[in-house]
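thought: fold this chain, then report.
action: predict
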Amino acid sequence: MQEVLGRMENWIRERRGSHFIAVTSMHGIMESRKHPGFRQILESADLSIPDGRPLVWTAHRRGYPDQELLPGMNLMWAFGELAAQRGYSHFFYGDTEGVLRQLIERMSERLPGFRVAGAYSPPFRPLTPGEDAEIVGMINRARPDVLWVGLGLPKQERWIFEHRDKLEAPVMVAVGAAFKFVSGAMKRAPLWMQEHGLEFIWRLAHEPRRLCHRVLVYGPLFLWRLFLEERGLKKYD
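observation:
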């Protein structure tokens, strides 16, 4: 976590272009195998961090014993604390107006000095070119140090990729469902489930329609491909 926070702070100080952080789970890896275009988007990120025990365990098995689990929710709280001390500002893009309002209220209560440059809940439909240009202008006028994007994978990564040359925020982070967790709109699994890699069961029980395919199809497929690769039966470039 400290390494990620250090990089974010350096990018904010330098303010040379926009830097993309992908908070990636097993879901993201499998989407990138299925869709080469999305794989290119993930690989274009300046930094990818693992949000999921399977990725952390795989890293440990492959010679990276110090790799930590870095969920988007944890990153938002950790950087929020640093930002409150340094005076960095945040812009939140995605989810509903209610979730955004609760998120800002909760972080402001817990982090004295927390600065919000802006927040926007886009409509749940394709934007017109005019609407898109207006949103880009709104974010740039707000001049946030970090732009948090919570549109869900793969939409949020595609949005950042398509807009990174238009936006002036030095750091943009794709955080998935972190807005809901930080706001309290959705509860995380008990700690023992998180530590043992069982949080997917909790998520599936609470969001069966949205997570059914991810858990019941992508999960076993990821493990099968991992098994083939580790046994030398298949090599993924």
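thought: worth noting. The chain has a mean pLDDT of 93.
final: tokens above.
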